[in-house]
Amino acid sequence: MTEWIQKEMMVAMNKVREQTPLVPSITNTVTINLVANAQLAVGGSAAMVYLPDEGESLAKLGQSFYINVGTMFPIYQESLPRTVQALVANQTPWVLDPVAVGLGELRTSLLASFKQGKPNIIRGNASEIIALAGLWGLSGGAKDSQVKGVDASEPVEQAIPAAISLARWTNGAVAVSGERDIITDGHKLAFSSGGSSFYEKITGAGCSLGGVCAVYQAVTTPFIAALTASTLYNVAGKLAEQQATGPASFQQHFLDQLYQLSPSQVASHPFELKEVSE
Ligand SMILES: Nc1ncnc2c1ncn2[C@@H]1O[C@H](COP(=O)(O)OP(=O)(O)OP(=O)(O)O)[C@@H](O)[C@H]1O
Ligand SMILES: Cc1ncsc1CCO
Ligand SMILES: [Mg+2]
User: Fold this and answer.
1) 17-41 b/e with 16+ CB inside 10 Å = b?
2) In what order do the strands lie in the sheet with 65-68?
3) Is 204 in the pocket of ligand 1 (CB under 6 A)?
4) What's the CATH number where 260 sits?
5) Within a domain: 224
6) Å from CA of 38 to ligand 2 middle
7) Using a 6 Å cutoff on CB, does residue 233 contact ligand 1?
8) Which residues, including other chains, have CB under 8 Å from residue 245's CB and lie 6 or more apart?
9) H-helix or E-strand spanning residue 192
10) Which of 21, 70, 171, 214 could form a disulfide with 66 if both were Cys (CB 3.0 to 4.6 A apart)?
11) Is 177 labelled as part of a ligand binding site?
């Protein structure tokens, strides 16, 4: 029953490697380098910008776009709304990573405004997904979700209702990351495990996963893109852990695995699929 999905995942990986899609980002300054390197390793082309007119131009030129609000700057008050407007106007698919939603006025007001821009993929940890659904007034969300910073404090399973309602609102996909990853398009739920606890010992595993979701989204649907990226990270993390002696060598081996893994190695990694009752 999951065969067509596995086939789509392989097609997406091959297409990205053949086509090198341009996938620009406005992302945080902590992990910007890892995001670009992960995007390049899977076969995409990266371009990081900050300024309003540059976000706008790349929203037109890019085949998909990644927005991560991890570190806020005053210029983002202009850059982010103008970029999102251009993404919507040009029907460029985009990924939102609502890092630390609820922290600060600018971050919160911008994230609230993105509800109308309907990001095609929303990727975050459980706490961020619950809090974003709360901010957007959707079911499963909570205004007082325990986002205390950039790390999750809630288990992924707790974010399932929020993930489903967000995916139904955007008509896209939501990927909740953690020890187990949950990917949904609002109608089906995929559960993928693997990875490594070393992912919690480096910064930007989640950010770069969002950037890689955006790369695959240039060539396939939001659900297949999010599932392909999440599965790739689960396979790559597991193999990198076997070669690593600590977080730094883990990051090095993990990037090598993103580059080396074959589509069939990724697509054959098992995942569980459930239909959501309507
Ligand atoms: N304990 C774990 N065991 C296995 N894999 C994990 C574990 N924790 C996270 N991962 C994997 O790490 C990747 C990033 O997910 P994570 O939930 O850490 O993102 P995040 O908290 O947004 O990270 P960051 O904000 O540092 O970028 C995903 O591929 C996820 O599957
Ligand atoms: C550590 C950190 N602080 C702001 S953004 C970021 C990267 C992980 O989300
Ligand atoms: Mg994060």
Assistant:
1) eeeebbbbbbbbebbbebbbbbbbb
2) 45-48, 22-26, 65-68, 94-97, 121-125, 173-177, 180-184, 188-193, 272-275
3) yes
4) 3.40.1190.20
5) yes
6) 16
7) yes
8) none
9) strand 188-193
10) 214
11) yes
Best CA proximity match to 266, nearest among 219, 230, 240: 230
- Best residue for ligand 2 mutational test, from 26, 31, 209 (most atoms within 8 Å of Cβ): 31
Evaluate if pTM is beyond 0.95: yes
| Contact criterion met (CB below 8 Å) for 238 and 194 | yes
Domain span holding position 7? 3-267
Q: What is the ipTM metric for this complex?
A: 0.97
How distant, in Å, are the alpha carbons of 4, 169, 248 from that of 251?
A: 32, 35, 5
In a domain, residue 275? The reply is no
The structural domain count of the chain equals: 1
Taking only the tens place, the pLDDT of each residue in 184-216 is 999 999 999 999 999 999 999 999 999 999 999
CA 213 – ligand 1 centroid, Å = 14
Q: Is residue 276 part of a domain?
A: no
| CA proximity to 30, closest of 78, 72, 64, 90 | 72
| Residue 1, marked binder | no
Tens digits of per-residue pLDDT, 90-113? 999 999 999 999 899 999 999 999
273, part of any domain:
no
Length of the chain: 278
144 compared with 36, residue with greater pLDDT: 36
